């Protein structure tokens, strides 16, 4: 959810991005957000000041060495004014509608562009960082082999047309059941379906992080897209295994969350066109 981080003036030390030493950094996330915002971001260096970097097709996320619970998100190249502001607004909008999101600061920063070939200041914002102690990562393949893949983000398949993966649905159900966290996740799924019913819009690229508390934290949403058909059980083929009208029954590999977790959604979803 959006946090009320202060927008104090940048640190004035001319040769330091950040004054704090790791040993003196407080544990709580809110204070790390506040102190990170006071850094001199004009002196930020992606490789020097981040302990890990995660590149996507358009964006890069770097975990701050000085504040390990906080990451900075920006664009790979260019200024990214529209993209960054749109994502911040989107996350705030979802949170306002009751959908659980990652915590973030809505203050837009200017940082050196990630691409060293582009000498411009890029737009950026701060988000909560989830590592393996705070989130269930998805993995496949054998560790140590070329085929091994590990991802923090989980892109779910909930609505017909979603960009997610049935394999991720199945693994998410497995993790939740093994850890007795079905109810926490179902509360978040119910909140998202309630938004679908109210808005008749879906989140394109619905993805997020599965916290060790069982909650699903939406992150990196692309945009809202109007649905061409009424929200019903048939449309929600990653939520319900079956629908009556039109008749549908998922194949076993297409895991849906209500039946997979053995819990009711707690909403009245129409079972007809």
Number of strands: 14
Q: What is the first-to-last residue Cα distance?
A: 34 Å
Helix and strand composition category: alpha+beta
DSSP helix fraction: 10-25%
Largest sheet geometry: 5 strands, antiparallel
Q: Show unreliable segments.
A: 1-14
Secondary structure tally, helices: 6
Order of helices and strands: HHEEEHEEEEEHHEEEEEEH
Strand portion, in percent? 15-25%
Overall, the morphology is: globular
> Can you give the mean pLDDT?
91
Instruction: Output the strand order for the largest sheet.
Output: 1-2-3-5-4
**Whole-angstrom Rg:** 20 Å
Describe this structure in words.
This protein has 273 residues and is of the alpha+beta class. The protein contains six helices and 14 strands. The protein has helices spanning 29-37, 46-49, 81-96, 166-178, 182-199, 257-261; strands at residues 50-55, 59-64, 70-75, 109-112, 121-128, 138-140, 149-151, 154-155, 201-204, 207-210, 216-218, 223-226, 242-244, 247-249. Strand 1 and strand 2 (59-64) form a beta hairpin. The longest helix is centred in the last third of the chain and has 18 residues, at 182-199. The model is unreliable at 1-14 (pLDDT under 50).
């Amino acid at each position: 959810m959006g946090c009320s981080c202060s927008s104090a003036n940048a640190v004035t030390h001319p040769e330091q991005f950040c004054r704090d030493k790791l040993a003196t950094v407080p544990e709580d996330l809110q204070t790390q957000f506040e102190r990170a915002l006071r850094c001199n971001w004009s002196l930020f260096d992606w490789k020097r000041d981040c302990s890990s970097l995660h590149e996507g097709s358009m964006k890069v996320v770097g975990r701050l060495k000085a504040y390990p619970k906080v990451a900075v998100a920006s664009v790979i190249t260019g200024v990214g004014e529209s993209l960054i502001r749109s994502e911040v607004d989107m996350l705030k909008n979802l949170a306002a509608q009751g959908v659980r999101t990652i915590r973030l600061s809505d203050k837009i920063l200017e940082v050196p562009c990630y691409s060293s070939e582009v000498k411009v200041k890029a737009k950026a914002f701060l988000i909560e960082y989830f590592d393996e102690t705070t989130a269930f990562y998805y993995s496949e393949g054998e560790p140590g082999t070329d085929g091994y893949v590990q991802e923090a983000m989980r892109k779910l398949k909930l609505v017909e047309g979603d960009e997610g993966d049935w394999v991720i649905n199945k693994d998410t159900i497995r993790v939740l059941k093994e850890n007795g966290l079905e109810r926490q996740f179902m509360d978040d799924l119910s909140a998202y379906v309630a938004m679908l019913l109210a808005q008749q819009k879906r989140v394109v690229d619905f993805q997020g992080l599965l916290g060790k508390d069982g909650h699903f934290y939406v992150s990196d949403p692309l945009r809202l897209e109007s649905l061409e058909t009424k929200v019903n059980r048939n449309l929600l083929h990653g939520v319900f295994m079956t629908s009556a009208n039109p008749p549908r029954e998922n194949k076993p590999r297409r895991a849906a969350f209500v039946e997979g977790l053995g819990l009711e959604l707690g909403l009245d979803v129409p079972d007809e066109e």
